Amino acid sequence: MNKTFFWMPEQASNFAESLDRGLAIYFTLAAIVLLGVSFFIIYFTAKYMRKSPGQLAQAQITHNTKLEIIWAVIPFIIFMGLFAWGLKGYINMRVAPNDAIPINVVAQKWSWTFNYPQGASEPELVLPLGKSVKLIMTSRDVIHSFYIPAFRVKQDVLPNRYTTLWFTPTKIGTFHLFCAEYCGTQHSGMIRSVKVVEESEYMAWVVEKANSTAGMSPEEIGKTLYTKKGCNACHTVDGNAGIGPTWKGTFGTQREFAAGAPAAIDENYVRESITDPLAKVVKGFAGAMPSYKGQLTDAEIDGIIAYIKSIK
Ligand code: CUA
After folding, report:
1. What is the pLDDT of residue 295?
2. Backbone dihedral angles phi then psi of residue 228, each to the nearest 5 degrees
3. 111 C-alpha vs ligand 1 centroid, how far in Å?
4. Closest ligand 1 atom to the C-alpha of 157?
């Protein structure tokens, strides 16, 4: 069976079908109860309406033991059944199979980084079809939430601890990944694509990415990091101001800061702005950048400096 319930997105993971079926059953039960209760409210209102101004209330019925037991016991059995079924599904979703591929996920304002077991560290989530995947997730700053509607999985991503999620992609294609917890100005910009491909294609991709910076010039490394590390969420390279100043034509220019004396944009300034972004905030900007201290190697920082220099 592969019937999506009403307005639900397409089903692309091992959990999708059973979760949709659960929703359909709950929805149907709730609809039946709503219709039944509504019917009797209207029916009894009409039936027991006072017919004339002088009419007294009819004989008072206080209770009916048999009826009360029936309407208590039947829902109890239904709810316990739903509870047991839900608990089984919950445990299944929480406990990943032992052979699941572990992928580390780092969320930060406002990007995702996926660290694959082969060593690749990418802003893109690419997954092999039919293989279980376990995501081990943490945040560098505030609470984010990892959400792929087509997979029916959602999990908060917290600073200073790890949360996990597992699933098996069951469909080739590209799906949306959202951040589902408001995390600041560019929260809506944390939307990404999840690509599900054949296993052989996944292996080729992940190995290629693991060796991707070999033989690159510093400028090329910087250009790669610009999107990979999410610099592009705030800094443009076309001259337009974003959340932060553009990188185009800035190197070597004189800048005024929110506090302190003006200074030229040089290697030291770029390096300081990466590791300690709030030290010199360019005038007119809010100073929203998180520190990248410890997340970039010296070679990578040199690469970013070389890239900024190259954008005239
Ligand atoms: Cu990250 Cu919203």
Report:
1. 78
2. -60, -40
3. 8
4. 1
| Both tokens assigned to 40 | 């009797």
Rounded mean pLDDT for each run of 10 residues along the chain, 312 residues in total: 68 90 89 95 88 67 88 93 92 91 91 88 91 93 94 94 94 94 91 93 87 77 85 88 88 85 86 88 85 80 87 86
**Helices of type H across the chain:** 16-47, 65-94, 199-210, 218-228, 267-275, 298-310
Ligand 1 atom nearest to CA at 184: 2
Ligand 1 within 6 A of CB of 144: yes
User: What is the predicted pLDDT for the residue at 88?
Assistant: 92
Q: Is the CB of 135 under 6 A from ligand 1?
A: no
105 lines ligand 1 (CB under 6 A): no
Instruction: Check if 108 has its Cβ closer than 6 Å to any atom of ligand 1.
Output: no
Angle between helices 16-47 and 65-94 (to 10 degrees): 160
Report pLDDT for 58. Answer: 60
Is residue 187 within 6 Å of ligand 1 at its C-beta? yes
